Amino acid sequence: MGRGGRGGGRRLFPFYPSTSLPAAIGFSLLLLNLSQPRASAAPSPPPSSALAFDYGDALTKSLLYFEAQRSGRLPYNQRVSWRHHSALSDGLEQGVDLVGGYYDAGDNVKFGLPMAFTVTMVAWGVVEYGEEIAGAGELEHALEAIKWGTDYLDMTTSRRAFKIDASHPGSDLASETAAAMAAASVVFRRRNPHYSHLLLHHAQQLFDVAAARKYYASVSGYDDELLWAALWLHRATAGAGLGDDGSGVYLDYVVRNGHALGGTGWAVTEFSWDIKYAGVQVLASKLLMERGQRWPEEAAAAEEILMQFQSKAEHYLCACLGKNNGTNVRRTPGGLLYVRPWNNMQYVSGAAFLLTVYADALRRSGQALPCPGGAARPSDLLSTAKSSVDYILGANPMGLSYLVGYGPRFPRQVHHRGASMTSYKETRSFIGCTQGYDDWYGRQEDNPNILVGALVGGPGGDDVFQDERQNYMQTEACTYNTAPLIGVFAKLHRLRLEESAGGPPRRCSLLNPR
């Protein structure tokens, strides 16, 4: 797992067995990882700026990636044919069934916190751009990706289990899982009301535990997750018709605790599974900006606090645009947003999503983004998001798509256990952990299986990328890298269709109107 955020890097033990550590209600504890990248080759000249990308194809491939990350017994409609059933005894030691969920990245580990964040981000993408995803013919696959995750998170223990419960609290995991379930409940409200209600009920239970029993001994903390979960529960309960007994209590929690939990104070320049303040601040800002469209009484009552959240959201967005007087997000010579060497693309995809969502919120409310370096129009935010996506797809000095399987040139030695070894379906022979490391990890050949839709860690600060399996900082892909791109690809695909047709196509009505 390519780790980032306040907690720094992790240690990697490539291709040796990893133990899943889910907690109660399907959680998994975090592990840390280590390895050494190799030297990089010089980049080739930048490609033409006139490159046109097929965002619909990128969307299709991105959703396919989540099927490659599935753990457990695979369904009949599994499209990634080289994957087979795996980890079918999860939970057996504890006498429970914990089969399923997603492998986090290149190893056979199921980490609860980033898995839940992945589900939250895919769900947020569907909430914002469900019509666009449906128009691209990918809504069912997006819903399947969400439900595969929430079905697992709604379980109760794991392979070698360290429980998180009232006696052994873990507020960050509980809160993120509550956020994932709440966001998913919004997605399924009309299509599967019973499942939506079940997710919302369990999200509320989890949040109660997280808020009452605060603890997690980590430098990255849990404050942002508590606010994140409360905002998603507000969104979910407001649409569920629960009135003051539902949505009001969660907005009140955000307003009362916004300062103490850092939501109105932290001015950040990154957004990831580990540090969510930018996402929290954008969600809170949308409440303020939509006060004439959604939940007007509550938004008006909380206006002063929400404005403080919004000022911090604006700091993050202006930093991505390079329009702050002081702190901006660094850019590579090729124009890529650059936060840190380890799995930098997670920050790029997250920024692209928040910029896209905020651009739409500004457009709907008729506003511009006030930055110290000058006001930015909604089109400026969307243009920055698009340039990041285009860089990912090949408009970069290496002329390489960092989305695996997209275009003619993409990473061939992705740091991924399953993709780098011959499929069991093909050989029908067992490969032990030591054998996998000795026989496959160090090979110089391309992976026998293409991990389609995976977004790898990406190039360094000099735009240089070395496609080597051992270079895990650049070649490992993670579920939370790809997750934010689902909504962005769908939005850009719709815009491309509108440009081609000379006007917006007929809108779908499969989800609640925004």
In short:
45% of the residues lie in helices and 1% in strands. It has helices spanning 55-68, 112-135, 139-153, 171-187, 193-212, 223-238, 247-257, 277-289, 296-301, 303-321, 345-365, 378-393, 424-427, 433-441, 472-475, 479-482, 485-501, and strands at 330-331, 337-338.
What does this structure look like?
The protein has helices spanning 55-68, 112-135, 139-153, 171-187, 193-212, 223-238, 247-257, 277-289, 296-301, 303-321, 345-365, 378-393, 424-427, 433-441, 472-475, 479-482, 485-501, and strands at 330-331, 337-338. It is mainly alpha-helical and 514 residues long. It has a single domain (55-501), classed as Alpha/alpha barrel (Glycosyltransferase). The chain has a two-stranded antiparallel sheet. 57% of the residues are buried. Residues 1-42, 45-49, 156-162 and 505-514 have low confidence and may be disordered. It comes from Spirodela intermedia (Intermediate duckweed). GO terms for molecular function: cellulase activity. Its EC number is 3.2.1.4. It catalyses: Endohydrolysis of (1->4)-beta-D-glucosidic linkages in cellulose, lichenin and cereal beta-D-glucans.
Describe the secondary structure blueprint for this structure:
Elements: H1 55-68, H2 112-135, H3 139-153, H4 171-187, H5 193-212, H6 223-238, H7 247-257, H8 277-289, H9 296-301, H10 303-321, E1 330-331, E2 337-338, H11 345-365, H12 378-393, H13 424-427, H14 433-441, H15 472-475, H16 479-482, H17 485-501
Antiparallel strand pairs: 1-2
Helix pairs in contact: 1-17, 2-3, 2-4, 2-17, 3-4, 4-5, 4-6, 5-6, 6-7, 6-8, 8-10, 8-11, 11-12, 11-17
